[in-house]
Design brief:
Helix 1 crosses helix 7, helix 4 packs parallel to helix 5 and helix 6 crosses helix 8. This protein has an 8-stranded mixed beta sheet, with helices on both faces. The protein is an alpha/beta fold. The chain starts with a strand and ends in a 6-residue tail after the last helix.
């Protein structure tokens, strides 16, 4: 069985994934933004999940969270599920935090990043991006960036399985109650890529929708854009992502 961190697991897709992984016998580390939201995870903690608390919009909190997780033992996989739809936290949570966790956490051999079909509307332009969230960020841009991060990690760390998942427009708090996609299929692909031994699940650099690999935005596999994104994030955070 694997030890898996699921960020943003207080509700929605993250909670569903953590619940299913725990039921399958995996060692799960659940995450909430603050102690108030962490109370919604009491039942999963009661079933054996470990809990970490930290606001992914704050870089110091991300660094503390990474250190806490590492101190408790090596991870086998990380599901970078936490996401924000709108407002100033979009860039800090949707791309800066996954980048920092990827750079800081020791040892995970599988990385799953939550993407979105909205990434097709993103712009592969890094000039003037508000990485610190002083104002509202572009959700589409953030999802293009995190999908590109997944592809860049797959290229630079061939020993790691790194993939992006579009869960579809599912009925979560973010998606709304009338979203048309299947919530179960939305989180099952994350779990499958994090744990399964199927040949397809052991591939890397993919953009997945309901266990089917699909072509992403052309910029995602543009190595020059990948390098610019990683260089910009390293300069912005003071933390380089090592091969």
């Amino acid at each position: 069985m694997s030890r898996i961190l699921v960020t943003g697991s207080a509700d929605g897709l993250g909670r569903a994934a953590a619940d299913a992984l725990l039921s399958a016998g995996h060692e799960v580390v659940v995450h909430a933004r603050n102690p108030q939201r962490a109370r919604s995870l009491d039942d999963l903690v009661g079933r054996g999940a470990d809990l970490v608390v930290g606001d992914l919009a704050e870089r110091d909190a991300v660094r503390r969270l990474a250190a806490e997780v590492d101190d408790a033992g090596p991870l086998d996989a990380v599901i970078h599920n936490a996401g924000v739809w709108s407002g100033p936290a979009v860039m800090p949570v949707n791309i800066v935090a996954p980048y920092l966790l990827t750079a800081l956490l020791r040892g995970p051999r599988r990385l799953v990043y939550l993407s979105s079909g909205s990434h097709f509307g993103g712009r592969p332009e890094l000039t003037g991006v508000d990485w610190r969230g002083r104002g509202a960020g572009s959700y589409a841009d953030s999802k293009l960036f995190v999908t590109t991060l997944a592809a860049a990690v797959a290229r630079l760390r061939p020993q790691v399985l790194s993939n992006a998942v579009d869960p579809g427009w599912v009925p979560t708090k973010m998606g709304g109650p009338h979203a048309p996609d299947d919530l179960e299929l939305g989180h099952e692909t994350q779990e499958w890529l994090a744990t399964a031994d199927d040949p397809e699940a052991l591939t890397t650099g993919g953009y997945w929708y309901h266990r089917r690999r699909r072509p992403p935005h052309p910029a995602v596999h543009d190595e020059a854009f990948q390098d610019r994104l990683l260089r910009t994030l390293a300069e912005e955070t003071g933390t380089a992502l090592r091969p």
